[in-house]
Amino acid sequence: MTYAKPLPSIDRWNKPFWDAARQGELQLQTCEDCGHWWFPPAPVCPSCLSTRVTWKRASGRGKIWSRCRFHHIYDKAFADEAPYNVCMIELEEGPLFISNVVGAAWEDIGIGDAVEACFEKATEEVTLVRFKLAEK
């Protein structure tokens, strides 16, 4: 079955992120000077403006910082999923990451709930990072 939803554009700044996701790994940029972690990718550290940027494997764990539920269909490709959740996840390393929490009913998704990354292969080039509720 062909993935029919919009896909991210892969460029030189985010390619390491998507390459890692294809391998089932969450990688984020970090600063070699101040140790800051961030997302989305950028050519310089947003904390100290250093260009000494590297990619590191993140834990994939975090907690739900914010959540919303979309009922309106902004793109017809998502019609079969409405209503669907969009959550802001605060990763253990610090960055906020916007994604979906999968495999859980809306009523079971709460602010502060622990989550962990999971991966959904969309195409040969793109594997999407989603989150699932962590085991309690």
Secondary-structure blueprint:
Layout: H1 15-22, E1 27-31, E2 37-38, E3 53-57, E4 61-70, E5 84-91, E6 96-99, E7 114-121, E8 127-133
Antiparallel strand pairs: 1-2, 1-3, 4-5, 4-7, 5-6, 7-8
Total number of helices: 1
Instruction: Characterize the main sheet.
Output: 5 strands, antiparallel
| Strand order across the largest sheet | 6-5-4-7-8
Order of helices and strands: HEEEEEEEE
Q: Which term fits the overall shape?
A: globular
Radius of gyration: 16 Å
Kindly estimate the percentage of residues that lie in beta strands according to DSSP.
35-45%
First-residue to last-residue Cα separation: 34 Å
Instruction: Give the proportion of residues in helices.
Output: under 10%
Overall residue-averaged pLDDT value: 96
Coarse structural class: mainly beta
Query: How many domains comprise the coordinates?
Result: 1
Count of extended strands? 8
Low-confidence stretches: none
